[in-house]
Specification:
Layout: H1 10-19, H2 33-65, H3 67-82, E1 90-94, H4 98-101, H5 105-112, E2 114-117, H6 137-155, E3 162-165, H7 174-184, E4 187-192, H8 195-198, E5 203-204, E6 207-208, E7 220-223, H9 228-234, E8 238-241, E9 263-266, H10 273-282, E10 287-290
Parallel strand pairs: 1-2, 1-3, 3-4, 4-7, 7-8, 9-10
Antiparallel strand pairs: 5-6
């Protein structure tokens, strides 16, 4: 096929390889379609994977270079929000863990904003997992889900001022967020509670799978790790320290409550956490622990 002098872009080659019914090889002799596919597929797949990685990296770099224009849009959006004149800001929230978010965050969001929460078609909470119905299929499923929900709300006259979520590039494509920003004019803000170890993780098609990979589609990174603020700013994404908290209507001290816990640990037991708990126990401090691995 390549020896025939067919000179188009790799995009065209890949499309034609899928839709053309091959019955001849480059020498002109008949060849079975199944035999050709067996011979060609590994090579062509490798060519396409390399090209697709290069194409995605080029899109990523171009999007980073366009962050200046995005920041101008952010300034305009912020100006529009400041003129709401007592109206509640419209916030579309993309969650992950309903148990975590229900411990004060969603309550506070509902009390202070005109908030819409993302739910799946099944009624389950939040965005799809990374490997939903296959490797990295979660990104495609989330693209359809999020853009579909926001599009349906827009038809009803509800357009978000702010799209807020807990997001990673392996789960939600930065292009999805960029498209939402362009179509709605909303500010895109991401909450990162694990940026110390989830900034990059590994690469997929040349892009970082963690929160750094989302930078072209995000206006603001809200990080629970104070030292990561400077890191995101250097990478071209405005960032602020966003410590974890709860809503005082949900989480508050009870009067006349009897203390029965000295130190409480809630979370996954990984990294140095197990060693910290063991050190406390060794020093005679009572620790009550809940979560995976405890």
């Amino acid at each position: 096929f390549f020896a025939s002098g067919y000179s188009r872009s790799l995009d065209d080659i890949w499309i034609h390889l899928h839709v053309m019914d091959f019955s001849y090889c480059s020498s002109g002799k008949p060849i079975g379609l199944q035999k050709l596919a067996v011979k060609a597929t590994p090579v062509l797949n490798n060519i396409y994977r390399n090209y697709d990685t290069w194409r995605r990296l080029r899109q990523y770099r171009q999007a980073l270079a366009a962050k200046v224009d995005a920041r101008r849009d952010w300034v305009r959006a912020a100006g529009r929000i400041s003129k709401l004149a007592g109206q509640k800001m419209r916030v579309f929230y993309i969650g992950v863990d309903v148990h975590q978010d229900s411990t004060g965050f969603l309550q506070s969001l509902g009390n202070r904003f005109d908030a819409k929460i993302l739910y799946r078609d099944s009624g389950d909470y939040g965005s799809y997992e990374t490997h939903h119905q296959g490797r990295f299929n979660g990104r495609r499923a989330n693209d359809r889900l999020i853009r579909g929900r926001i599009g349906d709300l827009a038809k009803e006259g509800w357009v978000p001022d702010l799209v807020l979520g807990q997001m990673w590039n392996e789960r939600i494509d930065w292009r999805t967020l960029q498209a939402i920003r362009q179509s709605t004019g909303a500010i895109i803000a991401n909450i990162g509670m694990d940026d110390r170890h989830a900034l990059r993780t590994s690469r997929y098609h040349g892009e970082w799978r963690g929160t750094q990979g989302l930078i072209p589609g995000v206006d603001l990174q809200l990080t629970a790790a104070p030292e990561m603020v400077a890191v995101f700013n250097q990478l071209g994404c405005d960032s602020y320290f966003f410590p974890e908290a709860s809503d005082p209507t949900f989480f508050y001290p009870k009067e006349d409550a009897e203390k029965d816990i000295d130190v409480l640990f809630v979370g996954k037991m990984y990294g140095i956490r197990r060693e910290l708990v063991r050190n406390l126990l060794r020093d005679g401090i009572r620790v009550t622990a809940y979560g995976l691995g405890t």
